[in-house]
Each structure stands twice: as C-alpha cells, then as structure tokens.
Design goal:
Layout (H helix, E strand, L loop, with lengths): L13 H16 L10 E3 L4 E2 L8 H4 L13 H45 L6 H10 L7 H9 L9 H22 L11 E5 L2 H4 L13 E4 L4 H31 L4 H7 L10 H5 L4 E6 H7 L1 H10 L4 E6 L2 E2 L5 E2 L28 H7 L4 E6 L3 H13 L4 E6 L3 H4 L6 H10 L6 E3 L7 H4 E2 L12 E7 L5 E7 L2 H5 L9 E4 L8 E3 H4 L4 H4 L3 E7 L5 E6 L1 H20 L8 H23 L6 H5 L21 E2 L9 H5 L4 E3 L5 E3 L7 H10 L5 E2 L11 H9 L3
Helix pairs in contact: 3-6, 3-8, 3-14, 6-8, 8-12, 11-12, 25-26
One iron/sulfur cluster binds next to helix 15.
C-alpha cells in the first residue's frame, strides 16, 4: 500500500535480525507519537482519519506478532485493526474515568476532614489562646488542640457508622484506581478480552504469555466461543457493576448526606442492563473470535443463540471461505466452483456446488444485532463499522473477508489487492445492518462503500499492447470471474483460448449472462485478460464459474433490493430530470459567455492551487469543494468515499468531478481523511441536508 515504493523486500540474515532487534528496542525507548500527528478529532463520532490511531504505540501494540501464521495471512490484519480500534476507543474513556476516581477520592477525603474538624469546639477563644501558650516552645498539632479544647466537655461525638462507610468507600475507590493503573498483572485493566474458537487465529496465537494478545484471552473448542463469551460476559459485568456501585455511592456522598444502608439495598440487583450509557462504554468488550468453519458451520447454533440473547458480545468471523486450519475442507461460506485441498477438483467433483451461505444476511434476520460485512481494502469502512458495532448496546457480528494464501492460492503480498478485487467484483460486497438506524430494512441496511452502486458490475480499464507495440485500452465489467481467474482455488475452471481459435461463438461473460438458455447454446463465455507480454487473452470460463458469477449477481441484486436501491425505472421521471439538467447547463453556459460567475467549468474543475469562484447559479452561498492537486498523494480516500464527486486524472491526481455528485457529508469525510490535507470542502449544495450545521462546523477546519 506504500505509495512511494519506499518499502523493499530484503533477505533475512542473522545480522538483519540483530539490526531489527536493536531498532525495535530503540523504537520502544522513544516516547509515544505526539497527538498532533494523530488526525482523529473524535473516535466515537468517526471524525478524522481513523487509521492514524495506529501511530499511538499503545494502540499499535494492542496486537503484536502472531508470526506462527502464514506469511501475509489476511486474518492478522483484520484482528490487528479490530483490537486497535477497541484500544483507541477505550483509552480516552479510561483516562477520563481515572480522573473522576482521583477527584472522588480527593473530594471524599476532604469531606472527612471537614467533618472531623466540625467535632472540635472552636468557639472558646480563651481556651485556644491557653493552648497556644502551652505549646509556645514547640509544635501544636490538631490532635493536641482538639484534645485540650474538648477536656471537661461533652464535645460532639463522631458518627462512627458514617466514618466507617466513608473510609470503606475511599478504600474501594483506591482499589479500583489501582486496578486501572497497575493491577495484579502490573499492566493495568485490559481494554478487551477474547474467547478464541480453535482455528488458525488460536493456533498462531499460541499459549499465554507467548501469544500476540496483550489482554485476557482464552481458547475453547471450535464451536463454543459465543457460548463461553456469554458466561464470561456475565461474570465480567458483575465485576464492572461492583465498581460502578462504588462510584455511584461516592458521587452521592459528595452531593450530600446519604443513607449508605438504603443505597446498598437499592443497588442489590444492579446489573449491566441498568448501566448508564457512559458506564456501558467503560466496559471492556468481550469478544468471540473464530473462522468461518467455527461460526458458519459447527458453532452456528451457538452464534445464533448468542445473537438472540441480547448480551452486547462482539463476534469476529474471519471469513476465509474454507476451513483453513484443518488443511482446507469446503465450508458453507465457499463460492460455487471453489476447490480446496481436501476437496480437490476431479471428474466427479468440480468444486463446491452449493451457493454461498450469507452469514451477514442470516445475522440480520435475527433483527437483534448490529451486523457488519467488510474487508481490509476499504479500511475506513472497516474501522468505522468496528466503532459502531463496538459501541452498540447490543450484540455485534463482524464478518470480515480474510485472504488465506495457501487455500486461495495467491501470493504472500497480495492480501490487500485480493481483498480489493473481492470487493470490486461483487464477490464480497460491503454491508451493514443497524437495527437502531430505522424501522424497516431499507433504513437499517447500508451498502455504502461498495463501488458503482447503480450498476451490476463496476467497470475497469484494461491497458494492453497490440502485437506492434501500440498501447490500447479496453473498458470492461469487473465480474466475479475476473476476480476468480487469478486465484488457484478456481484455476481449473479457466482455459486460455489461443488466438487462432477465436470465433464469433465466443461471447463475453457479462453479455453471455444476459442471453436466454436457448441463445446460450453453442456459445462459449470468456473474459479478457493479459498474457505476460501484456497482450490480450481470451480465457474461457467453465459452467461452474458462470453459475458462480450469476449467483454473485443475484446476491448483489438481493442486497440492493433489501436496501431499497432498486427502484423501478420511471421513463417520465428520467426525461424530466434530463430536461431540467440541460436547461440548467444551458443557462450557466450563457451566463459564462456573458462573463458571469456561474461558469460550468468553474463548478466542475477546480484550478490547481486556487479556490474556484463561487457558484451563484443556484445559491449565492454555495462554494464548491476544490482540491489543491499539488498536494494530492493519490491515497484513494476521496475516490473511494464517493467516486461521483472525486475522480483521478491521467496522472493519478484527484480532481472534483462533480461538486454536487453526492452529499456534503461525503465531501467533509473525504477532507478529514485526505492524507494530503488538500481537499477544501466549501459549503453544502443542499442546505437542508441532514446534520448540515454539524457538517459545516467540521468543514471549517479545512476551508
Ligand atoms: S492457513 Fe490461511 S488463515 Fe490460516 S494462518 Fe495460513 S493464511 Fe492465515
Ligand atoms: S485528494 Fe486527498 S484524499 Fe483524494 S486522493 Fe488526493 S490525497 Fe487522497
């Protein structure tokens, strides 16, 4: 992912390992990164460039090592981002909480001092003078003065019960503080805990303390992690409830007189259901982690039960579409035509024949949990999904695409690029279901982050060379087959057609799929790809891959219909829209010819290093977004967030394609995440956009 090609692969030698060890020690000795470089304004609100959280050493080291995994294993990246997000969320909360603990301890101690002083009668000034005289040659202590003033009088007796309760309370607060700062393990209180189903993630995790997880971690049977997590959650919440009881009592004691006995009774059945939101967010999450075999198949009943039970346990499914750890058996999460080591391709078996089980949809059907499906190629979507799911006061299921090099048959350094292909070919669409987002599924489901939402297959450009060296381009649909052709798990389904065999009966797969069964007779579906000389190749596609591609398309269309994105086409509405847009452009063109400010060019293409003129065509206040292209690092953030607003030019520098191509929210988010800090959001085109005032405030920083 390094844009500057600064990272190079080098052979490992004894000397290089020594150097790395020294560098590591040096890095550990350095102070933490200054927060000036961490461009996260508000983690809970997802404002800023979330991935910069990794610059914080504590966050980065929320998972370390795990090198028992295959080189380049996609699971590790997913888990690292997951644990990092949790740590980054918890750190500021714990810091604030510790501050409150300190304040409460100081406040209660002051309260006791005041109460003790109240028992001393200071109205007898003559007695005080005499006491001072007696101690003129030495120190006068409060205890001596109190004793002498009290001699021969009844004095005010101390409320011993009150004092006992207060001192107990302070002792409990101090114990809590110690647990956060130090605790039995000397690392302070953990930010999370894992229950790991047996599988790759547990095996490369190894045994405590030689595992990559610097937090409580337990391993159980393949199928059990959601159930074990439920039990642990209850115990963990009892501990948290004990702490919050102490805090509530301490706050009450500072506010005035309190009947501790009554308060104890009132809080007898205090449990996590009664926590305030602030208390809930202070609870380190309990997570169940497993692969697709553990969660889709063998432990599915446990997972389903857990999702229905309502406890806010966070489940991570590392979806490799195969049982990776046991040597590669087919899993219900696999694609049609997928071959695995223990289910090889042959005469009788041509890869998996069933359609893929869609865990995210099944999870959503429970209607009780936050469901998220993502992958590391869109890390902004991934981290933001983690934040929402972790913060949700309900169960959360994260189903994340994880590249498995040996079972997918892909290079060790290809995790991110393969994940991107899986996303762009609809093999693994992004999806989220948030029951708190609305009443019906169209409101609860979001397909945000998927490329080219309006069409079946996103388009891509294939650059190739003619035999005579002429450079050419081909605009093509990115189908599931275009993804599958470069993975060994599907390789048996593709056959190169030598150029002298090309004929009219060969039909591009995307077109072939539009044909009726009858018209498909005698036709051969193919996809375009390149040979090692960069020349075009036709690759014939098997029947299984045709089925698999159709199945992926059906699933994509199902998702769109559930999300309410497949409206019936109304020709009249389209004609009206075209008429209105044409009239608007004509009017703007005329104005620009007349020297007015509303030039179409001004609104569409922002000049380099200069802010565009205001668009006075529709609204005097509208200032379109512009980009200082000289600072663009080609980081993909803006074009991923909304390709209708932002696009790359021929030099891979982003420009504003259409400042009204999407909501102002996307423009502000792009500005916040832009690594070049070169997007200037301007003002919203639609003043009625949801939360527009908050967005304008966020945009101010970048204008
Ligand atoms: S087998 Fe696959 S999932 Fe398991 S450690 Fe290797 S790459 Fe990762
Ligand atoms: S404009 Fe910013 S966000 Fe867009 S590609 Fe360039 S550096 Fe990245």
């Amino acid at each position: 992912m390094c844009d500057d090609d600064a990272l190079r692969v080098a052979p490992q030698t004894t000397e290089s390992v020594d150097t790395l060890r020294k560098d590591w020690d040096f890095w550990m000795d350095l102070p933490n990164t200054s927060s000036d470089f961490i461009r996260v304004d508000d983690m809970d609100e997802k404002i800023g460039a979330m991935e910069t959280m990794l610059l914080d050493k504590t966050v980065y080291q929320s998972m370390a090592c795990g090198d028992g995994a295959c080189t380049g294993c996609g699971e590790k990246t997913v888990l690292h981002l997951f644990t990092s997000t949790m740590t980054a969320l918890m750190q500021p909360r714990v810091k604030k909480h510790l501050q409150e603990l300190n304040d409460l301890i100081a406040g209660l101690e002051k309260r006791i001092r005041e109460k003790l002083a109240d028992t001393v009668d200071v109205s007898n000034l003559e007695a005080i003078q005499q006491s001072l005289g007696r101690h003129a040659a030495g120190d006068l202590k409060l205890s001596d003065l109190a004793k002498e003033l009290d001699e021969g009088r009844a004095g005010s007796p101390l409320d011993q019960d009150w004092l006992k309760s207060m001192t107990r309370l302070i002792a409990k607060l101090k114990d809590l503080k110690w647990r956060y700062e130090e605790g039995p393990a000397k690392n302070g209180r953990s930010n999370l805990g894992f229950i790991n189903s047996t599988g790759c993630s547990s095996v490369y995790g190894s045994s405590w303390p030689y595992n990559p997880y610097p937090f409580p971690w337990a391993n159980h049977l393949f199928q059990d992690s959601p159930s074990v997590a439920m039990g642990i959650f209850e115990g963990h919440m009892c501990k948290m409830a004990d702490g919050f009881k102490v805090l509530r009592m301490a706050r009450a004691a500072l506010e005035g007189e309190v009947n501790f006995g009554q308060m104890e009774k009132d809080l007898q059945y205090f449990n996590w259901n009664l926590f305030t939101d602030a208390e809930y967010l202070l609870c380190p999450p309990v997570c169940a982690v497993g692969g697709d075999g553990a969660m889709y198949d063998i432990g599915f009943q446990n997972l389903s039960r857990m999702l229905m039970a309502g406890r806010p346990i966070k489940v991570m499914v590392l979806d490799t579409q195969v049982y990776s750890n046991t040597g590669g058996q087919a899993c219900t999460s696999g694609f049609i035509g997928q071959v695995s080591d223990m289910a090889p391709y042959g005469k009788a078996w041509k890869g998996k024949s069933e359609i893929r089980k869609e865990m995210s949809l099944i999870g959503a059907a429970h209607r009780s949990a936050f469901i998220f499906q993502g992958n590391t190629s869109n890390y902004t979507h991934l981290i933001e999904g983690f934040i929402d799911g972790i913060n949700a006061r309900r169960p959360a299921l994260f189903n994340v695409y994880a590249v498995c090099q040996p079972e997918h048959g892909v290079p060790d350094d290809s995790s991110v690029s393969r994940s991107r292909m899986a996303l762009e070919s609809r093999a693994y669409p992004l999806f989220r279901f948030d029951p708190d987002a609305g009443k019906d599924w169209t409101e609860c489901i979001s397909l945000e982050g998927n490329p080219a939402l309006d069409i079946d297959w996103p388009r891509y450009t294939l650059d190739y060379e003619e035999e005579d060296g002429t450079k050419q381009k081909l605009d093509l649909p990115m189908t599931f087959a275009d993804f599958a052709v470069s993975e060994a798990r599907f390789r048996k389904h593709f056959r190169v057609a030598p150029q002298d065999t090309w004929n009219d009966n060969m039909v591009m797969l995307a077109d072939f799929m539009e044909l009726s069964e009858e018209d498909r007779e005698e036709k051969f579906p193919f996809i375009w790809t390149l040979d090692k000389h960069n020349h075009l190749m036709r690759v014939l596609v098997s029947e299984e891959i045709v089925r698999s591609t159709e199945e992926r398309l059906d699933f994509w269309r199902t998702l769109k219909s559930l999300a309410g994105l497949t409206r019936k086409v109304d020709p009249e509405e389209i004609a009206n829209r075209v008429r209105s847009e044409t009239a608007q452009k004509l009017a703007q063109g005329l104005m620009s010819m007349l020297g007015g400010e509303g030039s179409v060019l001004n609104t569409l293409v922002a000049p380099t290093d200069a802010a565009p003129a205001k668009d006075s065509g529709n609204s005097a206040a509208f200032e379109p977004v512009w980009i200082d292209q000289s600072q663009c690092t080609s980081c993909d953030e803006c074009v991923t967030i909304n390709p209708k607003i932002f696009e790359y030019d021929g030099d891979k520098k982003a420009f504003v394609k259409d400042p009204k191509g999407g909501p102002f929210k996307d423009i502000v988010r792009a500005a916040e995440k832009c690594t070049g800090q070169c997007i200037h959001p301007g003002t919203p085109a639609d003043p009625a956009e949801k939360d527009v005032e908050k967005l304008v405030k966020r945009a101010e920083k970048y204008n």
